[in-house]
Write a structure and sequence with these properties.
Layout (H helix, E strand, L loop, with lengths): L20 H136 L2 E3 L7 E3 L2 E3 L10 H21 L7 E2 L6 E3 L10 E3 L7 H22 L9 H12 L14 H5 L1
Antiparallel strand pairs: 1-2, 2-3, 4-5, 5-6
Helix pairs in contact: 1-2, 1-4, 2-3, 3-4
Length: 308
């Protein structure tokens, strides 16, 4: 076989000088170092990035923690405020319950008192009805006794009309003119006025009617007292003409007639003429006995027994 032709060398393809082995080794070592440094740089960058990421997370956590603490403090304040409100409302509730219980007790006590009062009122109504009945009975008994007393007085001191002398009467058989007396009136007039004074005094006592002019009956020397009028001198006036000043005697008879008028007004009898002493007294006794001449039962005794 024919051999291959040898290649021809051009002038440019001639061998040139290169780096030495040591230089190449140093270059290789430097390249490895650079690669290690780059790798270390990348690792450091990665670690720094991780650290920065962790630091940011820690900062966020710290910020969140701070916010959480602030929120917790706010919540605690709100909880404390609400607890205070709860305690206050609990105290108010307790006070309200206590007040309600007190009111319930007061209502219960009030109902008991009301029931007791109603029972007492019912009992009082019964007693009031009984008292009214007793009062009516007592009034009837008093009225009956007053009639009896009036009848007894009318029988003890009979007042009769004088024949053929209209409006002239006598008492116990002694005539008495109607407030018209002569200056020399005898003792019979004084005796008649004494009887009238005694009857008026007894009626005042038995009827419990105070006289405006108190009478002091002493038979024919009876007197009457004026404590009302504005007077000078003695306030005691005689009911007898003997040894007395005429105007004082006549004024005493006037006061006696005023006492009779007072008794008649109490009885509801009408006075036609104040000067008619015996007619007015007889009419008074007539109205007290309701026109009956017979006296009622004398279970309480008679005037004779009372004055005897």
């Amino acid at each position: 076989m024919p051999s291959a032709p040898e290649p021809t060398r051009s002038p440019s393809s001639e061998a040139k000088p290169t780096s030495s082995y040591d230089s190449l080794m140093r270059l290789a070592i430097l390249d490895d170092c650079v690669q290690d440094l780059v790798l270390a740089q990348e690792q450091l960058t990665t670690r720094i990035s991780d650290l920065l990421s962790r630091s940011n997370t820690t900062l966020k956590i710290g910020q969140q923690l701070s916010e959480a603490k602030e929120s917790l403090a706010s919540v605690n304040r709100y909880v404390a405020m609400e607890r205070k409100q709860v305690r206050l409302r609990a105290q108010l509730h307790a006070d309200a319950v206590q007040s309600l219980n007190a009111r319930r007790q007061a209502i219960s006590d009030g109902r008991e008192c009301q029931l007791k009062a109603e029972a007492e009122v019912d009992e009082a109504c019964v007693m009031l009805h009984q008292s009214r009945q007793m009062l009516q009975q007592c009034k009837a008994d008093i009225k009956s006794q007053q009639k009896r007393v009036a009848n007894d007085l009318a029988s003890i001191y009979p007042i009769e009309s004088i024949p053929k002398q209209p409006l002239n009467f006598d008492i116990c058989g002694i005539p008495l003119l109607n407030s018209s007396f002569p200056e020399d009136a005898d003792d019979s007039t004084a005796a008649a006025l004494g009887y009238v004074a005694h009857v008026v005094h007894l009626l005042s006592c038995y009827l419990a009617v105070p006289l405006p002019y108190p009478v002091m009956p002493q038979l024919s020397t009876s007197t009457i007292q004026d404590n009302i009028s504005i007077l000078q001198g003695s306030r005691i006036f005689p009911l007898y003409a003997k040894n007395s000043i005429q105007y004082r005697f006549e004024y005493g008879v006037f006061l006696l007639n005023k006492d009779i008028e007072c008794l008649m007004n109490w009885q509801g009898a009408k006075v036609l003429d104040l000067r008619n002493t015996l007619p007015n007294l007889k009419y008074l006794l007539y109205t007290l006995t309701d026109g009956h001449e017979t006296s009622p039962s004398k279970e309480m005794g008679s005037v004779e027994e009372s004055t005897g």
